[in-house]
Amino acid sequence: MKGNTGFTFDFELDSGYRIADPAGLVDYLSRSAWSVRDGYMPNSVIYVQCLCNVADNLDLVVAGEEAGWVKKDSQTHRGAAENGYTEVSVWLLLNDSYSKIWGSDENRERLGKWPGEAPAVPENLVVPR
């Protein structure tokens, strides 16, 4: 393990598609980040950042809460930006005060031993419009 190591998924969704299961997306990407075997365990945060269709009004913070990776009302940047950008932070910090605020201990416990197994891609996670 090296210093503070995070993992970021930063993507733009093609306008011909929509995310049908936002909570499933946050769950899948959190578990996927934990399964990467590049020598460094994520020990600070997993970021999921998406530039999505504005009409979808996707809020990845709400999706993270619904998936159980984000403590209710612990993240203040709620809702999609005017351009459709949305993000969520799944915290993993080994710090008691952060764990109480952001649920780091629960997230690490849920992920289990690192590296985890690569999860199967959920069906109908992203679907055509």
Automatic annotation (TrEMBL):
It comes from the Bacteria. This is Uncharacterized protein. It comes from Mycetocola lacteus.
